[in-house]
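Let's practice the habit of predicting before peeking. Look at the sequence and jot down your guess about where helices and strands might fall. Then scroll down.
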Amino acid sequence: MNEFDEDVSGTADCSDGSVPVLNVHLKASLFLDGDLLPSRCSGGPTPGRECANNADCGAGGICVNDTGRCADSGSACTSDSDCPSSTCETGVCIGGTQAGKGCVTDAGCPSSTCRTLIQPCPVCNPATHKCNGGANHDLACVPGDSAFDGDYPTSHDCPPPAPKNIGSVPLILGLTTGTLSKTAVDLPGQPNVFCGFCRNKSTNQFKNPAVPCTSDASCASLSGFTSCGQRTAGAFTPLDLARTITVTGIPAGPLSTGGPRRAGALAAIFCIPSTLNSLADSAGDLPGPAAGSIAMQMQLVP
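Done guessing? Here is the structure:
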């Protein structure tokens, strides 16, 4: 879950809708949740609400398994043994000829898509405007406006359970509508380093708190963490072949005072430090480089 850690700052050109630089400092909180909503209400006054039994769903509602669906019938399931003629899958087709039936990928849903039933984030129920699951379960919320697979609509009003938090990492993004490029360097202890942090070369453990570096000399005074490097050489693959990362944003185009919003995209290349959690670092190959883009809209207000 990302939150602004500092005020956003930057520059933009209204003549062409370009953003030379937009500095964004985020705090990314990490949660190891699993499936927060294994059972949910169907029908009744609180559809979609987390439940343990039918009584939790009010008059006319029933509590149904939201973990799996049989691939042939769409019946609720928890294992293949619940589906005599097919398999139990953790996704469901949201339309097309296989609507409501279990799936693994979009290929199993002709003319539609496969939506996961695994719910790692609480939901802001669009019908009740209350959080389903998480620390603020049943409290009021405002749904977000960005669709993301089966987890939509989420909301910052509906955070995950605090005990599931495994830490946070700072993210510093220099976003732009232009083109950015970052080339790796070869260091004594590791080739193709995009994002150096002081580490113990023998154990590949990183200094806490994270200390960015550009060479071993930057780490010379840190006993036990005198090597500069990242978790895995290169970027975005177990192979250490990546040498250059390039991203390109999209300017929104000329803006006129009082005119309509115009769409564009901001792009960034940035470094993610170690989370100091072995599971998260292993899954994300951290610390290391990252790249991405964010859809945006620009408008020149009178």
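How did you do? The longest helix spans residues 278-284.
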